[in-house]
Amino acid sequence: MKILCIFLTFVFTVSCGPSASQKKTKEDVERKRECYLVRGACKTSCNSWEYIYNYCSTEPCCVVREYQKPVPKPINTTGDIL
């Protein structure tokens, strides 16, 4: 009887946990959600103006790089040569 109780307890605890496929699906959904939160898109490949933030299952999450205006070099008006 004691062995039966231990066996049933084991079977009950193993059967209640999420399966591996359900866990992977949940992780994929969370990664896609996180990708969209940073204004990214899950695509097969990223363009040159995008960077890979993370991966949505197998494809990368591509996020557009922030545009930084080029800073012009200051003009030397004193006539000194550096």
Automatic annotation (TrEMBL):
InterPro entries: Beta_defensin_dom (IPR025933). Keywords: Antibiotic, Antimicrobial, Defensin, Disulfide bond, Secreted, Signal. Its main location: secreted. Transmembrane segments: none annotated. GO terms for biological process: defense response to bacterium; innate immune response. Residues 1-16 form the signal peptide. It is found in: Secreted. Residues 34-62 form the Beta-defensin domain. GO terms for cellular component: extracellular region. Belongs to the beta-defensin family. Has antibacterial activity. This is Beta-defensin. It comes from Callorhinus ursinus (Northern fur seal).
